Amino acid sequence: MAQRYVRVKTNQEQVYYGLLQLDRSVGVFNAPPWLGGQLTDIDLKPDTYSLLAPCAPSKIVAVGKNYLKHAVEMGTPVPREPLLFLKPPTTIIADEEAIKYPKQSIRVDYEGELALIIGGLAKGEALRARCKDLSPELARQVIWGYTIANDVTARDLQKKDGQWTRAKGFDTFCPLGPWIVRELASEAQLKTFLNENDTPSQSASISEMVFPPEVLVSYISQIMTLNPGDVILTGTPEGIGSLSIGDRVTVEIEGIGSLSNYVTA
């Protein structure tokens, strides 16, 4: 099993980055691992902490219509360049936390996605902390790890507003986690399940992306500086659908695990 990098809050409200062990204990780092954090002597027992979202980014950069079949189901062509939008960090929630259905909307959709975690570039003995104007080759080097995301969207507001800030930006609209892995197979399968249905609503290989991860990171870095710990959402495949209060949505990515959240008023 791949090493699982987590962010936790102890029963005493202390927040740590750490490495999740098979017995669910957590070895604590002295800094975020993408900033060179090292394991300490602190070991948290399973009943002494709760899992948080695995990072606290300065920004979340998301990509729209990055799977051909999803663009088709939206009735639009595939963009010639990556279609970008931002989600505020306040949208992030952890595995098993509640997606809150906003009173302003009557159509809220799930969108299961692969998320990239940005690290830094090794430059001699130092770490180049910020990433700007990267080639695809260098962009590949700054992808520190991978996790699961759900780009929750108020679809009716997206259509009404003509731009996506409100529809994508409600608090709780970016479930993220439960942990980060360093490596991921290029053919890993992404699946989204709703409630107790054994048949996935979404099912695709991440290799079906129109613009692969290193192209996305390179493109974004030409526009804005990427900081270690930033998150990039790589787009959702076809099969998006609506959520209702009381629903439970689970996004699975082969080689990472699963991210589950329930919907409340």
Could you characterize the architecture of this molecule?
With 265 residues, the chain is mainly beta. It has two domains: 4-51, SH3 type barrels (Roll), CATH 2.30.30; 60-264, Alpha-Beta Complex (Fumarylacetoacetate hydrolase, domain 2). It has helices at 68-73, 136-142, 155-161, 165-169, 213-221; strands at residues 4-10, 15-20, 26-29, 39-44, 49-51, 60-64, 83-87, 92-93, 98-100, 108-110, 112-118, 121-123, 126-128, 143-150, 153-154, 174-181, 189-194, 202-205, 231-233, 241-243, 248-253, 257-264. The termini are far apart.
C-alpha termini separation: 37 Å
Query: Mean pLDDT, nearest integer?
Result: 95
Strand sequence of the main sheet, in spatial order? Answer: 7-6-19-11-14-16-8
Helix and strand content put the structural class at mainly beta
How many domains is the backbone divided into?
2
